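Regression test case RT-17, inverse folding.

Input:
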């Protein structure tokens, strides 16, 4: 069971005004691949009351014409706008996939420019990365961290529930701090129906180890629900700063 509060709080959202834009931008990254970034992105979009855009700068492992991560976001949350800038067919890091496909890599500056353009006409822009924070977009080392830095935008970190997540999450947040970037908080992307001891303890240990708030824990399997059920799950799985009702359990 996911701990949830009885009523929504009034905590402020973990994003600020993007530099030079009318809207606000939140970058979503993960401690690795397969931790639930897309579902968390969809959940934040589903709970935001105003105009939302979701930007996926680069998608790998999906051929042209096949549904990618944004198709799941649309199915689950129906944001006002979705935008994908580049995709490559092999399931590799973007720079590697682009090189093997013989196509141009996506420059982080182009991704930041697209986010700023969306922010001019939307209240919130969610920028979902590929893999982890330092997965390379380009062979010369451009990453999602560079996108966030170019936007002066906070970064929401999606983490796994179980054993090993403390180290992976702490490393990601340490990199954010080293680069002068703001971590909005952490969300567990797939909370198991029957959590083990490590997962239960991680609910308490993640904030202590990382120094940032734990902002939610979405139920495993949330991404296969219909839109109405997903909105309910999102509300109970994300905390008040993200528009939901979830609260970190007490000691």
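Golden output:
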């Amino acid at each position: 069971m996911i701990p949830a509060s009885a009523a929504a709080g009034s905590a402020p959202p973990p994003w600020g005004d993007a530099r030079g834009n009318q809207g606000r931008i939140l970058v979503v990254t993960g401690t690795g691949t397969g931790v639930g970034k897309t579902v968390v992105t969809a959940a934040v979009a589903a709970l935001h009351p105003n105009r939302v855009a979701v930007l996926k700068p680069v998608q790998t492992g999906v051929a042209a014409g096949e549904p990618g991560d944004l198709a799941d976001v649309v199915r689950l949350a129906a944001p006002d706008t979705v935008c994908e800038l580049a995709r490559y067919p092999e399931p590799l890091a973007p720079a590697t996939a682009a090189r093997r496909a013989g196509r141009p890599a996506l420059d982080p500056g182009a991704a930041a420019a697209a986010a700023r353009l969306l922010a001019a006409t939307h209240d919130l822009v969610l920028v979902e990365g590929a893999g982890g924070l330092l997965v390379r977009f380009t062979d010369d080392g451009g990453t999602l961290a560079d996108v966030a830095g170019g936007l002066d935008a906070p970064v929401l970190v999606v983490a796994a529930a179980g054993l090993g997540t403390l180290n992976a999450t702490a490393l990601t947040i340490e990199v954010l701090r080293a680069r002068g970037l703001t971590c909005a908080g952490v969300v567990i992307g797939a909370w198991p129906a029957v959590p083990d001891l490590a997962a239960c303890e991680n609910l308490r240990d993640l904030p202590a180890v990382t120094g940032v708030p734990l902002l939610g824990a979405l139920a495993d399997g949330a991404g296969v629900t219909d839109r109405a059920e997903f909105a309910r799950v999102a509300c109970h799985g994300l905390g008040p700063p993200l528009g939901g009702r979830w609260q970190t359990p007490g000691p």
